[in-house]
Amino acid sequence: MLNGKSALITGSTSGIGLAIARALAKAGVNVMLNGFGDAGAIEALRAGIEKEHGVKARFNGADMTKPTEIAALVKAAQTEFGALDILVNNAGIQHVANIEEFPVEKWDAVIAINLSSSFHTIRAALPGMKARKWGRIVNIASAHGLVASAQKVAYVAAKHGLVGLTKTVAIETANDGVTCNAICPGWVLTPLVQQQIDARAKANNQTVEEANRILLSEKQPMHQFTTPEGIGALTVFLCGDDARSITGSAYSIDGGWTAQ
Predict the structure, then answer these.
(1) Long-range pairs for 148-156 at CB < 8 Å and ≥24 separation?
(2) Which end of the chain is more exposed for a tag (fewer CB within 10 A), N or C?
(3) Segment 51-57 mean pLDDT
(4) How would you classify the pairing of strands 250-253 and 178-185?
C-alpha cells in the first residue's frame, strides 16, 4: 500500500522522528529527513536508511522557525520525489519555567516550532495531496495536547493547538482522500529523556531503575516507557489503507496518563 509513496518527517535526525522515518522507509516509503545535528552523523543516518530499506532518503536542514525555509523544504520534497504523499510534523522543543518567569523569546520559539511550523508545512503540502486525492498528515502532539502540567505553558499551549489544528484539517479534507491525525505520546525513552533520568538518579542517590519508576509514576499508571518504534508503527498504520476513514483523531500512546 505505501510502497513507492514519499514522506517528509520534520525533526527526524534523532528520537521519535528518526524512528518514524525508519518505520516508513521499512514500509517502502521514500523519506525526506529534517533536523539539526552533526553533518557527518546525519549523512550516515541518511545513507543507512537508503541501504537498509532500498528507498530514497534525502536530508534538508530547514529551520522550522522560518516560514520561507519551511515552504522551500516542502517544495524540495515534492521536487525530489515527484510528489509528497505523507507529512509527519514532529519537530519540537521544550522549556520549563513558571509563567511569570517564562522568557518571552522561549514562548515564541516553542510556539513557532511546536505549532506554527505544522501550519506552514500543511498549508504547503495540501494542494498537491488534494490534487492527487491521496494524502496522510500525522502530527506528533503529546499527552500535553490533551492535559496540562505545571511549568510547561508554551509546550502545553502548542500541543493543544496542534490537536485543534489536526481536527480542522481533518474536517476540511474529509472528502479529498486526505486524513489528518495526531499522536499523543506520554513518556518516551529517547536519549534526551535517558539523560534526564540518569541525572535524577545521581542527584537523588537512586538507581536508574528507581529513577525510572518514580518519573513514570508521577504521570502514568503504567510504569513503562513508550518506545519511538511503537510511535513509528502507529504512524505507519495511520498512513495505510486500513486507516482511510480515521481522521481528526488524537491517539494516546501514554501508558494510561490521560485515562485518569
Answers:
(1) 149/219, 150/98, 151/96, 151/97, 151/98, 152/94, 152/96, 153/99, 153/102, 153/107, 154/95, 154/102, 154/106, 154/107, 154/110, 154/111, 154/114, 155/92, 155/94, 155/95, 155/110, 155/114
(2) C
(3) 98
(4) parallel
pLDDT of the residue at 193: 85
What pLDDT, on a 0 to 100 scale, did the predictor assign at position 190?
Answer: 85
From start to end of the chain, where are the E strands? 6-9, 30-34, 57-60, 86-89, 135-140, 178-185, 250-253
Q: Which three cell numbers stand for residue 257?
A: 496518563
- What is the per-residue pLDDT for 207? 96
Question: Of all residues in the chain, what percent are helix, strand and coil, respectively (each to 5)?
Answer: 55, 15, 30
Q: What is the pLDDT of residue 1?
A: 85
pTM of the model: 0.96
Q: Which of 59, 81, 155, 225 is catalytic?
A: 155
- Taking residues 89-94, report their average pLDDT: 96
Percentage of residues in the chain having pLDDT higher than 90:
96
**Structural domain spans, the chain:** 6-188+226-259, 189-224
Query: Exposed/middle/buried for 240, CB within 10 Å: 0-12, 13-18, 19+?
Result: middle
Do 179 and 170 form a contact (C-beta atoms < 8 A)? yes
Residue 155 is a catalytic residue: yes
- The CATH architecture assigned to 6-188+226-259 reads 3-Layer(aba) Sandwich (3.40)
Burial of 154 (0-12, 13-18, 19+ CB in 10 A): buried
